[in-house]
């Protein structure tokens, strides 16, 4: 038996020896480096364009609009991050530590706002609270007011409203991480604190919050990154942020170099945010001692306290999910003819195509990269593996700048070359099609696919692929025969999550789509920007429906 295994191993060993002798690079290692380079290329492109612009407008930006863009962005990030952290951590504490009416339903209903794009929530909130909306109309009818001069009502399209909308859509990131952190804590610490006379608020402030601080900080960092990425909400509420500035400088002023310079400011802001998050918890280490670990036993609330906890958990669900769905659904039912619009059918087909293609490409590239790194063990692919996740932190507008400018130049050069050789003008084959959108989606959401593949492959015992290789399987054969069947569920989840994020992505799609090429997200944006929420409602409901499927899988995985 030993001799048979040795004979089977000889071809593989001989092949590796021949490659070493000839100095040939390993194809898996080359492929992994190539994928990493394609993911990082848009970021490098933005930085290069910013420092080598055709027209340097740094002095103009610094003396005019940059302070306003930067100030609004910082205030929005701080407001959304603080509010989302408070709501998400507070709700996670209540559902983890207490039992009260409807807590089992609220435990997963608190995830529902993840299905609502923030820009859809913004359109719904304005429609509900504006002067002609049901709230102000009802107040005028109830108190006999005739016009806006008879009463005061807060300004809806403002920075404060943008903070509320974004926090309502993004707090589930904090909720998910905080809930897991609270449930993993030992009940012994709380029993000791209660024995020393600590009440409910003292328990949260002195025990629960310090232990869950790393998870809350990580969730808040994700929320603030998504806040920087947002364009639909800030544009609709007329909040001049850095992302809105990219669209203004590039599309309205026609200055691509200035847009790239604003994009580098966003990248620097993201890097500072990530660094601060890591520094804030670098000295924090929490460990559970196995023999003393005891699971938490939730306390049962009764009376007014129980219903107060129910109301506190139901409020973010109402603002982040029930209100947007209710408003959009009412418009969709009142405008049934909008469902028959050919533009909606085309937008749906485009969304399915670019989202599906991006999901397949992204997950396949993530699998190849992770498998190549694990297979070769080379230092360069290992170093590049964590760096490729930067695309998720880079806003869609930044990626749009980094992709469109160099790709348009390459596209024009390619078309001119083909026309010069064959006398036929092929047109713009990359920027004139959905290719650029798919590429942007792949870069933006590569971290999801890579993380899912890495975690899934890490759960497979090394003895299984080793046995396959010893029995004569090639590296590609081992991937197909051993890894893929065992990680099929994780691959399916990654495909779904990437697809859903592609469906909701707005800034990159607006910048990179060909002329007259709408997806569901851009159709919602265009119709709502024209104050035509009735025609935007069907596309918005389809986006929400796709999001609900992903939230359902997420809730099932986190039960």
Structural topology:
Blueprint: H1 2-22, H2 27-51, H3 58-63, H4 66-97, E1 98-99, H5 103-109, H6 118-129, H7 134-143, H8 159-184, H9 187-195, H10 200-229, H11 232-236, H12 242-252, H13 256-280, E2 299-300, H14 303-334, H15 342-376, H16 379-387, H17 390-393, H18 396-422, H19 435-444, H20 446-458, H21 463-470, H22 475-486, H23 488-504, H24 507-512, H25 520-529, H26 533-557
Parallel strand pairs: 1-2
In short:
With 559 residues, the protein is mostly helical.
What does this molecule look like?
The structure is a single chain. The protein has a domain of 256 residues: MetI-like (MetI-like fold, Orthogonal Bundle). The two termini are 47 Å apart. The chain has a two-stranded parallel sheet with strand order 1-2. It is globular and about 80 Å long. It is built from 26 helices and two strands. Helix 15 packs across helix 19, helix 20 packs antiparallel against helix 23 and helix 23 packs antiparallel against helix 26. The protein is mainly α and 559 residues long.
């Amino acid at each position: 038996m030993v001799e048979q295994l040795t004979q089977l191993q000889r071809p593989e060993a001989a092949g590796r020896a021949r490659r070493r002798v000839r100095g040939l690079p390993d194809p898996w290692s080359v492929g992994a480096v190539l994928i990493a380079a394609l993911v990082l290329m848009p970021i490098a492109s933005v930085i290069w364009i910013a420092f080598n612009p055709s027209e340097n407008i740094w002095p103009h930006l610094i003396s005019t609009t940059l302070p306003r863009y930067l100030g609004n962005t910082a205030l929005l990030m701080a407001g959304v991050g603080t509010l989302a952290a408070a709501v998400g951590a507070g709700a996670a504490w209540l559902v983890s530590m207490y039992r009260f009416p409807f807590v089992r339903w609220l435990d997963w209903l608190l995830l529902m706002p993840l299905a609502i794009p923030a820009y859809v929530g913004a359109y719904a909130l304005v429609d509900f609270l504006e002067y002609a909306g049901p709230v102000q109309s009802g107040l005028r009818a109830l108190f006999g007011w005739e016009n806006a001069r008879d009463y005061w009502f807060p300004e809806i399209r403002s920075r404060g409203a943008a903070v509320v909308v974004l926090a309502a859509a993004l707090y589930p990131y904090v909720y998910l991480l905080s809930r897991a952190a609270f449930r993993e804590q030992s009940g012994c610490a709380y029993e000791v604190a209660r024995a020393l006379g600590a009440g409910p608020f003292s328990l949260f402030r002195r025990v629960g919050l310090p232990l869950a601080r790393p998870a809350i900080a990580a969730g808040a960092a994700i929320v603030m990154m998504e806040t920087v990425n947002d364009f639909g909400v800030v544009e609709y509420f007329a909040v001049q942020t850095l992302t809105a500035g990219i669209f203004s400088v590039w599309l309205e002023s026609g200055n691509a170099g200035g847009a790239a310079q604003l994009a580098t400011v966003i990248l620097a802001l993201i890097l500072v945010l990530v660094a601060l998050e890591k520094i804030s918890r670098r000295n924090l280490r929490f460990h559970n001692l196995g023999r003393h670990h005891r699971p938490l036993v939730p306390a049962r609330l009764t009376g007014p306290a129980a219903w107060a906890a129910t109301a506190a958990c139901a409020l973010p669900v109402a603002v982040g999910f029930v209100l947007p769905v209710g408003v959009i659904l009412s418009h969709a039912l009142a405008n049934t003819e909008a469902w028959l619009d050919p533009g909606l059918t085309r937008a749906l087909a485009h969304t399915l195509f670019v989202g599906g293609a991006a999901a397949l490409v992204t997950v396949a590239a993530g699998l190849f990269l992770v498998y190549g790194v694990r297979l070769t063990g080379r230092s360069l692919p290992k170093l590049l593996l964590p760096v490729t996740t930067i695309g998720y932190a880079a806003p869609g507008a930044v990626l749009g700048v980094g992709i469109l400018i160099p790709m348009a130049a390459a596209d024009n050069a390619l078309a001119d070359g083909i026309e010069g050789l064959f006398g036929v003008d092929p047109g713009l084959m990359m920027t004139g099609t959905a290719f650029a959108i798919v590429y942007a989606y792949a870069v933006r959401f590569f971290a999801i696919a890579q993380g899912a593949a890495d975690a899934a492959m890490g759960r497979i015992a090394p003895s299984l692929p080793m046995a396959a290789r010893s029995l004569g399987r090639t590296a590609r054969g081992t991937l197909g025969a051993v890894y893929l069947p065992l990680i099929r569920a994780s691959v399916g989840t990654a495909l779904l999550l990437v697809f859903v994020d592609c469906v909701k992505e707005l800034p990159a799609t607006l910048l990179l789509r060909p002329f007259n090429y709408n997806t569901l997200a851009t159709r919602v944006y265009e119709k709502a920007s024209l104050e035509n929420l009735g025609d935007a409602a069907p596309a918005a409901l389809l986006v929400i429906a796709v999001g609900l499927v992903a939230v359902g899988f997420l809730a099932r995985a986190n039960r």
